[in-house]
């Protein structure tokens, strides 16, 4: 970083800043500091929602929902029991705070958990 300090201000401004920097403190122009401090004043309601942590199985179920697969088709494709699909789907809905498959898809897309390319059927899974 480059800075110019008028000769009359070396003792009053530059020397204290150099002592702070030598002590491990960060020194910056007050107008630049807003870039760092403004985010500290963000209210939690203004922050984007955090995506829930999904298990690998829940991600698999979500992708199958995106491919418009039924519970029976999902069970066949993933090689698991229909009851396992239903249970995982219930956990998925709970984590997303939704009650049906359409709402789960909408929420998953909004949170970035699912991309449009995830909804394209995999030719090897048909």
Automatic annotation (TrEMBL):
One of its GO terms (molecular function) is DNA binding. CDD domains: LuxR_C_like. This is HTH luxR-type domain-containing protein. It comes from Phytohabitans houttuyneae. It comes from the Bacteria. InterPro entries: Sig_transdc_resp-reg_C-effctor, Tscrpt_reg_LuxR_C, WalR-like, WH-like_DNA-bd_sf. Residues 47-112 form the HTH luxR-type domain. Signal peptide: none annotated. SMART domains: HTH_LUXR. Keywords: DNA-binding. GO terms for biological process: regulation of DNA-templated transcription. PROSITE patterns: HTH_LUXR_2.
């Amino acid at each position: 970083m480059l800075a110019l300090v008028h000769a009359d201000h070396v003792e009053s401004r530059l020397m204290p800043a150099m002592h702070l920097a030598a002590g491990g403190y960060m020194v910056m122009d007050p107008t630049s500091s807003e870039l760092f401090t403004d985010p500290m004043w963000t209210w939690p309601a203004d922050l984007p929602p955090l995506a829930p942590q999904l298990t690998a199985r829940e991600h698999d179920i979500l992708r199958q929902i995106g491919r418009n697969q039924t519970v029976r088709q999902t069970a066949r494709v993933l090689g698991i029991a229909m009851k396992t699909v239903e249970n995982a789907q219930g956990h998925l809905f709970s984590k997303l705070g939704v009650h049906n498959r359409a709402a789960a898809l909408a929420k998953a897309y909004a949170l970035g958990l699912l991309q449009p390319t995830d909804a394209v059927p995999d030719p090897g899974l048909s």
